[in-house]
TrEMBL record:
It comes from Streptomyces niphimycinicus. PROSITE patterns: HTH_LUXR_1, HTH_LUXR_2, RESPONSE_REGULATORY. The modification 4-aspartylphosphate is found at D54. PANTHER family: TRANSCRIPTIONAL REGULATORY PROTEIN NARL-RELATED, TWO-COMPONENT RESPONSE REGULATOR. This is Response regulator transcription factor. Keywords: DNA-binding, Phosphoprotein, Transcription, Transcription regulation. Residues 149-214 form the HTH luxR-type domain. InterPro entries: NreC/VraR/RcsB-like_REC, Sig_transdc_resp-reg_receiver, Tscrpt_reg_LuxR_C, WalR-like. SMART domains: HTH_LUXR (SM00421), REC (SM00448). Residues 3-120 form the Response regulatory domain. The lineage of its organism: Bacteria, Bacillati, Actinomycetota, Actinomycetes, Kitasatosporales.
Length: 217
């Protein structure tokens, strides 16, 4: 079962999400929180695999809570930011905070369920508009950020860089293994090593860094 925590200050939204996810036989809502601080506190007690996190909440907002939670390393839950504020700036901030996904609240129920499953597998869960925002952000990046990203990626082995490039293209671990003729376990090992060397929390942040390093046309 995929254990999910719902963090939103609107009880009606939490109820709707709980009913939506309740229709999936492989997903269980284990806790709810009305603000980011309570969400962070609930993680230790309920050990969720995935958090659906609103951005605008009292006490501690969703971005601050995501930053706090992703510091837990391999034991950290995957955070999907789910918000009515589909702004490009927020997409990039959420990804840099360590979120594994970004969805607008008007996303179709079946797509939210699919996103939870992807996040639980360690794969990115982005709405089409969020994906476009990341692409535009990477394309418009300043030269100093690009140079920093290239210096960071230089820390990786050639194989780790190949894995990073494939991650930036949106490939799953299985697809990366097929492209590079590697076993799934080897792909995961290279990915984990790259994240550790770069002090990153997840593959979305690795994809951002890789996009930043690419030459501007």
């Amino acid at each position: 079962m995929i254990r999910v925590l719902l963090a939103d200050d609107d009880p009606l939204v939490r109820t709707g999400l709980k009913m939506m996810l309740g229709g999936a036989d492989d997903i269980e809502v284990v806790a709810e929180a009305a603000d980011g601080a309570r969400a962070a506190a609930a993680v230790g007690e309920h050990e969720p695999d995935v958090i659906l996190m609103d951005i605008r909440m009292p006490v501690m907002d969703g971005l601050a809570a995501t930053r706090a939670l992703t510091r837990h390393g391999a034991k950290a839950p995957q955070v999907i930011v789910l918000t009515t504020f589909d702004e490009h700036r927020l997409v990039v901030e959420a990804m840099r905070a360590g979120a594994a996904g970004f969805l607008a609240k008007h996303t179709a129920p079946e797509d939210i369920v699919a996103a939870v499953r992807r996040a639980a597998r360690g794969e990115p869960a982005l709405s089409p508009s969020a994906a476009r925002a990341l692409i535009e952000h990477a394309a418009a990046g300043p030269d100093d950020r690009a140079e920093h990203a290239r210096q960071q990626l230089a820390l990786l082995t050639e194989r780790e860089r190949e894995v990073a490039e494939a991650v930036a293209e949106g490939l799953s671990n299985t697809d990366i293994g097929t492209r590079l003729h590697l076993s799934l376990g080897t792909v995961k090992a290279h990915l984990s090593s790259a994240l550790a060397k770069l002090d990153l929390d997840n593959r979305v942040q690795l994809a951002l860094l890789t996009h930043d390093a690419r030459p501007r046309s």
